[in-house]
Design a protein that fits this description.
Length: about 375
């Protein structure tokens, strides 16, 4: 039943919009599958790296045992050499003729015996450490064996997942091609252009809002989208709008929203403006920045956020330096550090562009509401006589 109701509701959409919905769904699935396929080699590499780490631990433990064995052989050789010296000194002591010579040989024998004891202590220490080393090696070998089995299992699962993803990717690419072929070429270019910069080219309308950028729509725009008889584009984010009645909820009228727009500060070292028509450039955003005894001006395309022309510097505060730019301009909220604006280079970030578009919509709505309020107070044609 629910499937049938949804199908009836979707019939109210334009065929191009229905195909764009299918296209956007295919684009999202293709992106997800590509990301998953790209991630799988990295996952296998991480698995191999983990295995290499366990192998390195095992090799390090084995190397430590070999090092201890070599040290033990060195100490044993040193003990044998010292014992030979002691035997030699004792033989010499039988042939000496003075007490001084005899005492000197006894001292040499004592020194050699001390060195023997020191080497024996080191050998004993190595023997104690050898037990711990052997335990480390056995533990590392057990861990390596278990990890190799687990890793082979994970690698097999990764290969299976990749094969399944590639199969699904081919299916979604076919669906995508079918959906694109069914869309009007001009509309498809609009979709592709916006999707390139914003990730998606289509947005659902719900509760009087564009769900992608969360900007409230004008009542007329909202009604046009609901009617489903023409293509409607969001003024804020340029996405193509559609309405799905099965998801919408009963929304309160726009007049019920009481939130007021923040007023831009008049005395500010930075000011953003919107100009509806600036020469052959069309709609633009302009930012002025006061800096010491001079001010700068940057101009951006209101739709794409790309900078138009170079940054212009003039002497004096911007109201005096650029009076020709302020005639029909709408003052907007917005303030960013000049260093941050410099980092943007020749294009506004999408978040900045969205904020400016949102404040512009609020400013327009505020102006429209003010005009309606003035229209309600109409002077009487026949005032009472005083």
């Amino acid at each position: 039943m629910h499937v049938r109701i949804r199908a009836v509701l979707l019939l109210k959409m334009l065929p191009d919009v229905q195909n764009l919905i299918e296209l956007q769904h295919a684009d999202r699935e293709i992106l997800r599958l590509k990301e998953e396929i790209a991630a799988l080699p990295r996952r296998v590499a991480a698995i191999e790296e983990r295995l290499a780490g366990t192998k390195a631990i095992l090799e390090k433990a084995k190397a430590a045992i070999k090092t201890d064995e070599a040290a033990r052989r060195k100490y044993e050789t040193a003990i044998q050499d010292l014992q030979q010296k002691i035997s030699k000194y004792r033989d010499q002591s039988l042939e000496v003729k003075t007490n001084e010579q005899y005492k000197a040989l006894l001292h040499e024998i004592q020194f050699a015996e001390q060195d023997i004891r020191a080497n024996e202590d080191k050998i004993l220490e190595l023997m104690v450490n050898a037990e711990a080393r052997e335990k480390d090696v056995k533990a590392a070998e057990v861990e390596l064996k278990a990890e190799m089995a687990e890793i082979e299992k994970e690698k097999a699962e990764a290969r299976e997942r990749t094969a399944e993803d590639e199969k699904q990717l081919a299916e979604w690419n076919a669906k995508r091609g079918t959906a694109r072929a069914a869309v009007n070429p001009d509309l498809l270019r609009q979709y592709d252009r916006v999707a390139k910069y914003r990730g998606t080219g289509l947005s659902e309308v719900r509760d009087h809002k564009c769900m992608a950028c969360q900007v409230m729509l004008r009542p007329q725009t909202y009604n046009e989208v609901r009617a489903g008889t023409q293509i409607v584009v969001c003024d804020s984010c340029q996405r193509i709008l559609y309405y799905d009645a099965s998801k919408d909820q009963v929304a309160e009228p726009l007049v019920a929203q009481k939130r007021r727009r923040a007023r831009p500060k008049f005395e500010s070292g930075q000011a953003w403006y919107y100009v509806a028509s600036r020469g052959g450039e069309g709609e633009v955003f302009i930012v002025f920045i006061n800096s010491g005894r001079e001010s700068s001006r940057r101009v951006y395309d209101a739709a794409t956020g790309r900078q138009l022309g170079d940054t212009l510097l003039r002497e004096g505060e911007y109201r005096l330096a650029f009076p020709e730019e302020l005639g029909d301009a709408i003052r907007l909220n917005g303030s960013w550090e000049e260093a941050e604006i410099d980092e943007w280079a020749t294009e506004l970030p999408m978040v900045v562009l969205d904020l400016l578009q949102r404040d512009l919509n609020l400013a327009r709505a505020e102006t429209s509401a003010g005009a309606r309020a003035e229209g309600e107070t109409v002077p009487s044609e026949h005032p009472a006589a005083s």
